[in-house]
UniProtKB/TrEMBL annotation:
InterPro entries: Ig-like_dom (IPR007110), Ig-like_dom_sf (IPR036179), Ig-like_fold (IPR013783), Ig_sub (IPR003599), Ig_V-set (IPR013106), IgSF_BTN/MOG (IPR050504). Keywords: Disulfide bond, Glycoprotein, Immunoglobulin domain, Membrane, Signal. One of its GO terms (cellular component) is external side of plasma membrane. PANTHER family: BUTYROPHILIN (PTHR24100), BUTYROPHILIN-LIKE PROTEIN 9 (PTHR24100:SF130). The keyword Cytoplasm does not apply. GO terms for biological process: regulation of cytokine production; regulation of leukocyte cell-cell adhesion; regulation of T cell activation; T cell receptor signaling pathway. It is found in: Membrane. The gene is LOC116223542. This is Myelin-oligodendrocyte glycoprotein-like.
């Protein structure tokens, strides 16, 4: 019984600074201690909109983000639930929330994204 409780005793670790990017970016987020997230539900939000959902091995992408968001499902075994966002647009800037659910245990982490200017001023 204690082992089952330990499996659900995890936290989400995200950077404590804004991620700055242009083009493609990975929004880092992982479970601590390292725990397989394969059987967990993983949701990424931009504001109130769910842009990525991994549940029971199936992936659903938000309408505005179709074909642009992914989580490396091979890394889930190591607890890495980072979101890959391709072809960043100005509207993508903001705070992203990662939510991981395992049974009754739910953890959230936030990652801020700031878009770099595509034109250098130098």
């Amino acid at each position: 019984m204690a082992a089952a409780v330990m499996d659900k005793d995890f936290k989400l670790v995200t950077p404590d600074h804004l991620v700055k990017a242009g083009g493609d970016v990975t929004l880092p987020c992982h479970l601590s201690p390292k725990t397989s997230a394969v059987a967990m539900e993983i949701r990424w939000f931009n504001g109130r909109h769910c842009i990525y959902l991994y549940k029971n091995g199936h992936v659903t992408e938000g309408e505005y983000y179709e074909g642009r968001v992914s989580v490396n499902t091979q890394e889930l075994q190591r607890g890495d639930v980072s979101l890959r966002l391709r072809n960043i647009r100005w509207g993508d800037e903001g705070v992203y929330t990662c939510q991981v659910i395992s049974g009754e245990h739910k953890e959230e982490g936030r990652v801020g994204l700031r878009c770099k200017s595509p034109v250098s001023l130098l």
